Amino acid sequence: xxxxxPHITERRHTPERRSPVGSSMARRMGAIDWLAMVLMIIGxxxxxxxxxxxxxxxxxxxxxxxxxxxxxxxxxxxxxxxSIYTLSKMAGETHRY
Length: 97
Known about the structure:
Layout: H1 20-25, H2 31-53, H3 57-62, H4 67-94
Protein backbone atom coordinates (compact mmCIF):
# COMPACT_ATOMS: atom_id res chain seq x y z
CA UNK A 1 0.00 0.00 0.00
CA UNK A 2 1.35 3.43 -0.95
CA UNK A 3 1.94 5.95 1.78
CA UNK A 4 1.80 9.71 1.64
CA UNK A 5 5.30 10.05 3.08
CA PRO A 6 7.72 7.59 1.50
CA HIS A 7 10.79 6.45 3.35
CA ILE A 8 13.74 8.85 3.21
CA THR A 9 15.70 6.51 0.95
CA GLU A 10 12.84 6.36 -1.55
CA ARG A 11 12.55 10.12 -2.04
CA ARG A 12 13.90 11.63 -5.20
CA HIS A 13 16.73 14.09 -4.88
CA THR A 14 16.01 17.33 -6.71
CA PRO A 15 19.05 19.60 -7.02
CA GLU A 16 18.75 23.21 -5.96
CA ARG A 17 17.96 25.34 -9.00
CA ARG A 18 19.38 28.54 -7.64
CA SER A 19 23.11 29.03 -7.54
CA PRO A 20 24.69 30.06 -4.22
CA VAL A 21 25.92 33.33 -5.70
CA GLY A 22 22.50 34.18 -7.11
CA SER A 23 20.75 33.63 -3.81
CA SER A 24 22.75 36.33 -2.01
CA MET A 25 22.37 38.72 -4.92
CA ALA A 26 18.65 38.04 -5.20
CA ARG A 27 17.79 39.41 -1.79
CA ARG A 28 15.47 42.36 -1.97
CA MET A 29 16.99 45.77 -1.54
CA GLY A 30 15.67 47.77 1.37
CA ALA A 31 14.88 51.47 1.44
CA ILE A 32 18.34 52.39 2.75
CA ASP A 33 19.97 50.38 -0.06
CA TRP A 34 17.89 52.21 -2.66
CA LEU A 35 18.62 55.59 -1.10
CA ALA A 36 22.34 54.86 -1.07
CA MET A 37 22.20 53.75 -4.70
CA VAL A 38 20.32 56.88 -5.81
CA LEU A 39 22.71 59.16 -3.92
CA MET A 40 25.73 57.44 -5.45
CA ILE A 41 24.22 57.83 -8.93
CA ILE A 42 23.67 61.54 -8.23
CA GLY A 43 27.26 61.83 -7.01
CA UNK A 44 28.58 59.96 -10.04
CA UNK A 45 26.68 62.17 -12.45
CA UNK A 46 27.89 65.27 -10.61
CA UNK A 47 31.52 64.14 -10.72
CA UNK A 48 31.14 63.25 -14.41
CA UNK A 49 29.85 66.76 -15.15
CA UNK A 50 32.67 68.31 -13.15
CA UNK A 51 35.27 66.26 -15.00
CA UNK A 52 33.86 66.69 -18.49
CA UNK A 53 32.38 70.18 -18.51
CA UNK A 54 33.54 71.82 -15.26
CA UNK A 55 29.92 72.12 -14.09
CA UNK A 56 29.14 71.35 -10.46
CA UNK A 57 25.42 70.60 -10.62
CA UNK A 58 24.95 70.40 -6.84
CA UNK A 59 26.61 73.78 -6.37
CA UNK A 60 24.56 75.20 -9.22
CA UNK A 61 21.29 74.04 -7.66
CA UNK A 62 22.01 74.64 -3.95
CA UNK A 63 24.74 77.27 -4.05
CA UNK A 64 28.49 77.11 -3.65
CA UNK A 65 29.31 75.47 -0.28
CA UNK A 66 26.00 76.30 1.34
CA UNK A 67 24.61 74.10 4.10
CA UNK A 68 22.34 72.33 1.62
CA UNK A 69 25.11 71.54 -0.85
CA UNK A 70 27.44 70.37 1.93
CA UNK A 71 24.63 68.13 3.19
CA UNK A 72 24.22 66.60 -0.27
CA UNK A 73 27.99 66.02 -0.54
CA UNK A 74 28.02 64.46 2.92
CA UNK A 75 25.10 62.16 2.13
CA UNK A 76 26.75 61.04 -1.10
CA UNK A 77 29.92 60.20 0.84
CA UNK A 78 27.99 58.33 3.52
CA UNK A 79 26.11 56.36 0.89
CA UNK A 80 29.43 55.34 -0.69
CA UNK A 81 30.70 54.14 2.70
CA UNK A 82 27.45 52.24 3.27
CA SER A 83 27.78 50.63 -0.15
CA ILE A 84 31.32 49.49 0.70
CA TYR A 85 29.89 47.87 3.83
CA THR A 86 27.10 46.24 1.80
CA LEU A 87 29.56 44.98 -0.79
CA SER A 88 31.82 43.45 1.85
CA LYS A 89 28.79 41.80 3.47
CA MET A 90 27.70 40.36 0.11
CA ALA A 91 31.24 39.14 -0.61
CA GLY A 92 31.31 37.41 2.77
CA GLU A 93 28.05 35.62 1.98
CA THR A 94 29.41 34.16 -1.27
CA HIS A 95 32.42 32.62 0.47
CA ARG A 96 30.25 30.56 2.83
CA TYR A 97 29.26 28.12 0.08
